[in-house]
Amino acid sequence: MTTDQISKGLTTDQVAALTTAGVTALTTSGVAALTTDQVVALRTDQVAALKTNQVAALTTDGIAAMETRDVAALTTASIAALSTNQISKGLTTDQVAALTTAGAGALTTAGMAALTTDQVVALRTDQVVALKTNQVAALTTDGIAAMETRDIAALTTASVGALTTSQISKGLTTDQVVALRTDQVVALKTNQVAALTTDQVAAMETRDVAA
């Protein structure tokens, strides 16, 4: 089918009636031509069946139109295929929160760096715990600053040890420093401790300083 036949011909009922094989047969240009209403009409099993290049072909409006249950159904390979534009300009905060822990862990480092502050706030604590060290290290300083204190406290010691000096000195807020667990503070490397600002040091719990 041509892009015109898809975007101007196929009704939402017809889209929903496609078999998974029919959906995976759509060309990347055909997927890019899907209207937001057509994307909404996709069944969850159809979304789960999409190939990585098909997911990568969705417009930012198409991504934003996806039902949260469908975002949760995306394979880890499909999530890894999302472009930075699809992430920063497409994914809604509700969709970010709907990602499975495996899905959150599948975001590329470029994808992590593309997350907006609102998207970072939307991350669930179990998603944050599931992040790999290179994903945490890829967050912007604004992204770090946007993290909920409960999420900072939930970071693994390996993730805390992976924070860059810029993330520490320009990202961590004093409230986040207070939220650090003692074992997280112990996990800080010497160059990370050296990067702490005087305000951050002053905010540290006495038990953490002693550690």
Q: What's the tally of helices?
A: 26
Q: Percent of residues in helical segments?
A: over 70%
Largest sheet: none
Give the class from helix and strand content and strand pairing: mainly alpha
Distance between the termini: 66 Å
What is the average of the pLDDT values? 95
User: How many runs of DSSP E, i.e. beta strands?
Assistant: 0
Q: What's the order of the H and E elements?
A: HHHHHHHHHHHHHHHHHHHHHHHHHH
> Which regions have little confidence, pLDDT < 50, spanning 5+ residues?
none
Compute the CA-based radius of gyration: 20 Å
Proportion of beta-strand residues: under 5%
- Tell me, briefly, the overall form: elongated
Q: What's the number of domains?
A: 2
Brief summary of the model shown:
The chain has helices at 3-9, 12-17, 20-24, 28-32, 36-41, 44-49, 52-57, 60-65, 68-73, 76-80, 84-90, 93-98, 101-105, 109-114, 117-122, 125-130, 133-138, 141-146, 149-154, 157-162, 165-171, 174-179, 182-187, 190-195, 198-203, 206-210. It has 211 residues and is mainly alpha-helical.
